Amino acid sequence: MSRPVFIIAEAGVNHDGSVADALRMVDVAAEAGADAVKFQTFDSTLLATRRAGKAAYQVRNTGADDGQLAMLRSLELDRDAHRALAARAAERGLRFMSTAFDLDSLGFLATLDMPAVKIPSGDLTWAAMLLRAARIGRPLIVSTGMATLDEIRQALAVIAFGLTREGVPSSPAEVEAAFDDARARVLLRDRVTLLHCTTEYPASLAAVNLRAMDVMAETFGLPVGYSDHTLGATVAIAAAARGAAVIEKHFTLDRTRPGPDHAASLEPDELGAMVAAIRDVETALGRPRKEPAPEEIGNRAIARRSLVAARPISAGEAFSLENLTAKRPADGLSPMAIWTLLGRTSARNYAEDEAIEP
Asked: Is 3.20.20.70 the CATH number for 6-285?
């Protein structure tokens, strides 16, 4: 059996800077049955310059074009808040996670009990972050929104260097050599999960391209999951059916709130329904074998057929396609045996619909 899908309820910054709301979101994630609740950790001054503008979706969802820095400042949580969130998650039987958006935040998060380090899509090309994250010694979940296969490969090469070598690379060739190292390939398979993602909030169905999950799995030989920014839960459930190892989905206390991510997020009851649906999909996926389910065995005799006389057959008469047919129930010879009977003579008389004996 494959491992259960690891479901991350992504609170992100949907707390709007309120610790009380963030704590409520931990409770919502626990009640929904998620495996982990995840936030975002950053010092806004280390994340964006004053000239950094908002993405179009952020302007649309916040109703203001005041730049990234102002928006981010209003969404920061301090370290005490993170400790309180981690403690609440532990109380509720959830794993606590947060995504670091600067190196100082990454160092702080490394002191907390997190099951994995998450690399956000926007930082797939930040070599220093990738190198530092690789050396924390925990599994990595690497989101690939906006990325090409070549950019993913370059990121994995930096991670491979961090997993197998000391210091910093002296050249791109040294990074490439690390990626080609057999030991690094084993470590990547053990520690890295890639997430397919479309970086738009909300993302349109036409932009999702779930088949990219298959391409990444085939190209890199790593577990692949899906970070969903579409409306509703349909695509996340479909990704689970396609074999996603991890599903990450934003949720909010109230989708009508102004803020960058609320519009593409599930409300509490919807989050619970998504988790339940994914667990149903897992059960239905079963295992990679084709065999009768135990529940089916008793239905064979009812649904299948036996060879019977299509009309009365006299002793000594040759069996033929004209005097044999197949009808329910399956309490005699399988219809697959007809080829062994054709041309043979009947040893006795048969009435119409009587089962043919071996």
From this structure: yes
